[in-house]
Amino acid sequence: MKKIILLLTVFCFIGSSFAAFTLEAPAPKAGEVYIVVGKNGEKISLLDLSRVKIKDLQELTGKKMKLSDRIGFTLAQKKLRESINHDGTFNQKKIQKFFKKAGDGSSGFHIGGFALGFLLGLIGVLIAYLIKDDKKSNRVKWAWIGLGIVVVIVILASI
Fold it and tell me: Distance between CA atoms of 109 and 101, rounded to whole angstroms?
C-alpha cells in the first residue's frame, strides 16, 4: 500500500512540474502556405492561387477545366481573396483556428486531464470541467479516459 501511495505522490509532483505557459507562434501568411497541384507535385501558395489566371492553372495542373469547373474555381478564388488581408494574413477566424490547432495542445494527449481522471476519479473529471481555457475540451476528454482506465483496473483487480 505504501508503494501505491508513493507512486501516486510522484505522479502528482511530476504532473505539477510542467511549465505553465505556452508560446504561440504567429499564424502563417497566405504566401507561406503551399498546396500541391497537378500530378507532378507542383506547389502553389494560397496567395498565388487567389491571383492566378485559369489558363495558368490549367498549364500548371496539366488538365483542361470544364466550364462548370472554371466557374466554381472563380467563385472559390474570390472567397479566398476575400479571406486574405492586404498584408498577407488571414482574416477569417476559421482559417486562423485551423493553423493554431496544429500545435497548441488543444488536441492529442493531455497529461493534466489524464492525471485528474486517473488520480482523482470523478472529482478530477469535475475539476477538468471547471477549468476554463482553450484546452478545456481536450482536458475533459482525457480526464474521462483516465477515469475509465481506473475503473477497468479496479474491475480487473476485483476479479
Answer: 13
Report the length, in residues, of the chain: 159
Phi and psi angles of residue 50, each rounded to the nearest 5 degrees, phi first: -75, -15
pTM of the predicted structure, to 2 decimals: 0.45
pLDDT, tens digit only, all 159 positions of the chain: 777 777 777 666 666 555 455 555 566 777 888 888 877 788 888 888 888 999 988 888 888 889 988 998 898 888 888 888 888 877 766 666 665 655 555 667 888 899 999 999 999 999 999 998 888 889 999 999 999 999 999 999 888
CA 36 to each of CA 39, 79, 90: distance values in angstroms, whole numbers, following the listed order: 9, 19, 20
